[in-house]
Amino acid sequence: MFTIHPTARLRPSPFYDAVVAEGMTAASIYNRMIMPTSFGDPEAEYWRIINGVSQWDVGCERQVQIKGPDAGRLAQILSPRDLSKCKVGQGKYVPLCNHQGTIINDPILLKLADDLYWFSIADSDIWVWARAIAAERGLDVEVSEPDVSPMAIQGPKGEDVVASVFGDWVREVRYFWFRETEIEGIPVAVQRSGWSKQGGFEIYLRDGSKGTKLWNIFKEAGKPFGIGPGAPATAERTESGLVSVGGDTDAETSPFDVRLEKYVDLDVADDVVGIAALREIKRNGPRRHQLGMILEGDVPAPLGFAWEEIRAGGRKIGDMTNCVWSRRMNANIGYALVSVEAAPGDSVEVMRDTGGTAAKLVELPFL
Amino acid sequence: MFTIHPTARLRPSPFYDAVVAEGMTAASIYNRMIMPTSFGDPEAEYWRIINGVSQWDVGCERQVQIKGPDAGRLAQILSPRDLSKCKVGQGKYVPLCNHQGTIINDPILLKLADDLYWFSIADSDIWVWARAIAAERGLDVEVSEPDVSPMAIQGPKGEDVVASVFGDWVREVRYFWFRETEIEGIPVAVQRSGWSKQGGFEIYLRDGSKGTKLWNIFKEAGKPFGIGPGAPATAERTESGLVSVGGDTDAETSPFDVRLEKYVDLDVADDVVGIAALREIKRNGPRRHQLGMILEGDVPAPLGFAWEEIRAGGRKIGDMTNCVWSRRMNANIGYALVSVEAAPGDSVEVMRDTGGTAAKLVELPFL
Fold it and tell me: The complex's ipTM?
């Protein structure tokens, strides 16, 4: 392995000092920010998400803020999902697509006011894209990156921790809904959200100078619940069937290919970016689909930096886009982005560094 | 420090196996690819660029390919620089700007044919931006990411190495011009280029399966010249006054702020993205400019992941965007993005972790 070279082209999050103090040992780069991925004890970190509560620096989930008289119009133009019933205080998962119907990001859209929206984005430069479309269409709207950085409290005991900080009202917050509030003078938005299926909240810090203070408030409040540092967990998200845009997708992947069809509304207005292409893809039927895969072998063998070829009958049928050891399933599991002719139950072969490895296709999620 | 966590969201370059074999110890992430930054001996790596020849995996400089009947039109629409005299086989440095006149990337544009261009980009998602503008304007053009990955041969002996591989014709190639050719059956483009001021070439590999083979051809050919592995060097590029877009720039930086005015032609057509904003910025005069800075102290103290505040008379006047130890100047040197009221010769103070550090503003480049 190698270390990461400091440069101002990559940015720390407001929680950087806190996670360094927690003993961060590994990280990834996401939206040109440092996203911690481990604190040196992967096993403890995994079970904390599954059984307890885990605290994550996900400040790299940046916000693309859309503000102004045409904010609602631009939000809808960028979203192939009907936002007409989205209320202030509500969030919605949106697979953003380019004009060709390729998924380029999958943010949570937060409606803060009729003229103010945030896309809380995955890893790609949605600012340049959103600004270009707003300008080309002559919309009266400002697209910016506000001083907003999420921290996640994830796991079955997450709600208790967040309630102990803000009060029991958080227990009534519905999935992806949020409330703007403050804690010890720190402005935040509190949303039921997070990149796991174990429950929890994201606390959107709205003052980047207060990262360590906010981190420590939750570290302290979480002690009775056994909180500890963690990170978006490849194993948990894979077991749970969550998609990583940019990891599980390529330059030709539509939402239909990766089980996101339910978040696409083909009857939105014709001026929505990519909607014509998505209708066409739907009409013709997608070429590929995403399935789970259980690999033979009892030694953890995670995917590296590149997809691995999947074959059936000696012929390439697609790629393994993700592979990780599941401690609950005692197996290497992964995602297959394969021809629609391949189906759950099929036996396939993955062309790994160590040689061909037998695997079985299954439905997602695993758990 | 921390290690980087493997994930298919980040990609290896075709030279990845080769640089691992060379003993890569540190890397950065650039266009979601792994860019080696050190092989464990920074001093040797530095002097190799200054006095000898260095081999770099810069496969992360991806190509945004523009192809089709409207390719030339789109290339000009995206470029606030007059391309009307650009010939096939010629390259041009282009500061790409958004509609607000903010610099979002600074690629080399390569004209391969009247209907085929590459932007060899720095670190941001120009594909999504270029595709959006092409689609919004209804242009007949395809924007894609071809299988093209540059490797750089940099340093005063670089030309000799490249000539020993391809022949003496490379000595006649003018700056940023290129020729398409092949070596041992590997298709490449050979361009006089590279992110240093020490001279050299970039070899654009056009078959990603041949990375190790191409690497080893140059490793072997370079032996008589003392070639060794290296990387774009923060020290050399700082001494030489090269700009790192995304490192030295922020969401409000125009080309005028960072000494790139000579690459902007304000009289290009009105339909060029950002040109109206750039004319306005020029008319009003930029607020900031980029100067060099020599810091007091004789202990190397590089910048980390964040800009550092610069003060004059106790008041913030801007930011230090870059700082590195110069072995040739025996000093920490950096870039100041400061108010236009600050001038070379001014004494300033940099607010470092270790306390206020005295510094003097100077003209760029340093050397």
Answer: 0.95
